[in-house]
Amino acid sequence: MPSENNLIEALQCLDDKSFNNEAGRLRAVEALTLAVSKIQRPWDIVWQHCWVNPATTACTKTLIDAGVFAKWVEAGGGDKTCAELAELTKTDPVLIRRLIRQISGQNLVIETAEDTYKPTPWVKALAADQALANVYGGLYHF
């Protein structure tokens, strides 16, 4: 069995380009999901189900509705502070900061400096694909 440090290092090197094909990527996702379920304790699972998932969904929906992702990508998709994102969307910077911090904790945006974030492929996909963004509760817009 690999050492804890070797295992963590190997996992940190993974990305969607680590696989030769989609089938291999999906097999890895399945194996990683199973591995996470084996190391989580019951309280970890409850925390994820009852707090993290609903809070992340609510934050994502609010950011979509405020136009944050779309405006961010339209502005070049580079690193932005929460104040800059708020300015782009004419929204409250404190609100944007709180929402972005929540999704940053789920690695959905990447914090590059204090209060500065860069978008991930997920953000870019939500900005480009309204049907994908609608999965976050936007079905009432139809």
Automatic annotation (TrEMBL):
The keyword Transferase applies. InterPro entries: WH-like_DNA-bd_sf, WH_DNA-bd_sf. It comes from the Eukaryota. GO terms for biological process: methylation. One of its GO terms (molecular function) is methyltransferase activity. SUPFAM superfamilies: Winged helix' DNA-binding domain (SSF46785). The keyword S-adenosyl-L-methionine applies. Keywords: Methyltransferase, S-adenosyl-L-methionine, Transferase. This is O-methyltransferase domain-containing protein. It comes from Fusarium oxysporum (strain Fo5176).
